[in-house]
Amino acid sequence: MSKSSQAGLDRILTLELARVTERAAVAAARLRGRGDENAADQAAVDAMRSELNCLPIRGTVVIGEGERDEAPMLYIGEEVGLGEGPEVDIALDPLEGTTICAKNLPNSLAVIAIAERGSLLYAPDVYMEKIAIGPGYPARIVSLDAPPAENIHNLARAKGVPVSEITACILDRPRHARLIEEVRATGAAIRLIGDGDVAGVIHTTDPDNTGIDIYMGIGGAPEGVLAAAALRCIGGQMQGRLQLNTEEKIARAAKMGIEDPNKVYTMEEMAKGDVLFAATGVTDGNMLQGVKFARDYIETHTIVMRSASRTIREIKARHQDLEKF
Ligand SMILES: O=P(O)(O)OC[C@H]1O[C@](O)(COP(=O)(O)O)[C@@H](O)[C@@H]1O
C-alpha cells in the first residue's frame, strides 16, 4: 500500500504531536523537584493546550484532566485544535506522574494519543485493573481472568526462560499486597514503582532495556487507555477491567456508554483504528531521557508512533529559540 493511500489519519500529524508533548514536558520540567505537584501539572496543562490549539484538527478531549466542573482546561469534552481538519478523539496527560516530577524521580512523561472520532474508550476517571506484555508472544498467553501465577508461568514458557528471569512491574500500593505475594511466590521478581503506570506498561515492550516483562495491577483508567494506545503502535498485548465497585461509578460509566461494568477490554477495544501516540520524558527514565536545560538550549527526548504504519520514531530535539519556551 502506498503511503498516501494508507487509511487513517494524516501521517503528518504524528510528527506534529512531538511539539505538543515537548512543550508540556519542558513546562513541567522547569518545576521538577520543587515538591509542588499542582504547579507542575498546571504548567504542563497550559503548555499542552496552547500547542494543541495550533494543530489542524477538530479534536475532542475524551481522556483529559477531569470533568468540566473540576478541570477548567483540557477537560473531558473540551474541543481543541484549529477547528479544521480531521475529527479526532484525544487522550492526554500533560504530566503523567505528577508526584514523580515533584520529587524528581524517574519516568514522568508528557503524553498524548490521537485517534479517529469514536476510536478511544471513553473511560471514566476510576481505577482499572491492567495486564500488559510486549510484542512477540502468542496471542492470549496472559489474561485478567487467570490467576497471577498462571500468567507468570505462561509468560516464562513463551519467553523460553525460567520463571526466576521474569520481572513484573507493579504499583507500590497496599491494594496490591496479595498480588505481590502471589507473584513473589512464583519466584519472579517485581519492580515496585511509586507512580507512572503508562511508562510501566510501555516498558514491557523492551524488556532487554527496561528489565520489565509484564505489567500487572490496578491503576488509573485514563492511564490505561493511554497505555493501550501506545501498545497498539508498538505491539504487545493488554487487557483492562474498570473497577466499577459502587453504584455511583456504575452510573457514571453508564453515562459514558459503558453497559457491562465487568467487561474485560482488549487493547484494540480501548484504542481502535489508526492511533497516533507521543510521549516526551519530563524526568529521566528507562526509555526516555528527561528535559535537559543547557545554557543556550533545551533538549527534549520524545517517542512518536503510529499504529497504521507501526512506525516508531525517537526525536531528540535541541530547542534554541528559548523565548518560545
Ligand atoms: O495513585 P493511585 O491512586 O494509586 O493511582 C494510580 C495512578 O496514578 C499514577 O501513578 C500517577 O497519576 P498522576 O499523574 O495523575 O499523578 C498513574 O500512573 C496511575 O495510573
UniProtKB/TrEMBL annotation:
Keywords from the UniProt entry: Carbohydrate metabolism, Hydrolase, Manganese, Metal-binding
MF term (GO), any: fructose 1,6-bisphosphate 1-phosphatase activity
Sections of the chain in a coiled coil: none
Reactions performed catalytically: beta-D-fructose 1,6-bisphosphate + H2O = beta-D-fructose 6-phosphate + phosphate
Superkingdom: Bacteria
Family: Belongs to the FBPase class 2 family.
The protein's name: Fructose-1,6-bisphosphatase
Source organism (scientific name): Chelativorans composti
